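Q: I have 353 residues here and want to know how they pack in 3D. Can you give me a structure?
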Amino acid sequence: MKVRWHRSLVARVYALAATSLLVLTIAQAVMFPLLRRRPPPPAYVATPPPPPPPFPLWPVAAVLGTTLVVMLGISWWVARGLSRPLRQLADATERFGRGDLAARARLARNDELGRLGEAFDQMAARINTLVAAHGTLLANVSHELRTPIARIHVALELAEEDPAGAHARIAGVSKDLAELERLVDDILTMTRLETGVRAAPLRMEPTAPAELAARAAAGWRDRHGDRALALDVALPLPEIACDPMLLRRVIDNLLDNAAKYSPAATPVTLHVRRGGGTVHFSIEDRGPGMTAEDLTHAFTPFWRSDASRTRGTGGVGLGLALARQIARAHGGDVELVSAPQRGTVATLSVPVS
């Protein structure tokens, strides 16, 4: 922020000191000749010397009075510039502490106190955003947990009523439990990465990108059967320092998204390329694509487009958010390029070792 010198608090203090020094200098220049005035030396005569003239006090009183008035005026000016914004900032702090998260100082100043008020407003806005996100997260987690728990509850009730058919429902219960486990694991992993708190540090080790892509392709065949996956690896590729399990999780998530949101008859392509000091894993599909508005929300936890909800393939909406957190923990990122009816390209970028 550009500070205007004439409104700066430091300028006020300097003005007070400079004015006081100037007034004292003038006072010294006026009073010094008066204080140095002495009566003439006595003549060597028998008559006594005449009495000295009375010392004039009015110049001294005028100088001291002027100095006092000027210093009081400047002190009032400085105090007025400090007290009002400080009261405003203290009031905003008290209201925010009482739970009014919309409280802001809003100091329209271009000095040090203005910068302090702006910093408080920014901090309050960030806290307000975090609290709102926390509430949204709790609501979404509650919603996502309720569905599989309700299915498990119904399955157990039906098993009690029909013990002979209980075995047929075990597979459904197992699937619901796996969904719950995956949801809880995703939430814990994302929270630890966001806060910088991990149960254990990232297990970084040199990894060949081509080997990582080959393992992801093998996992694709296990999960999607005969669904076509084209593997395009531009060799040679340098090694990357990563946690191979977490990075493989990102690639698997992006591949599964491509399988969900593209027709089964269309292929999915995994490209592995080097660009400067970065290795890029790009997953390209020929699905319906995403709108510009969808792209702005794609990495928001628990967000799913209306289309994904109606197709029953939307998951819980944590995959992309978690993928970006893992990528950024490695110093990289995940980006999406998409357009309606033109498919989607999801790219995981990881820096070279």
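Q: Anything worth noting?
A: The longest strand covers residues 268-275. The longest helix spans residues 112-161.
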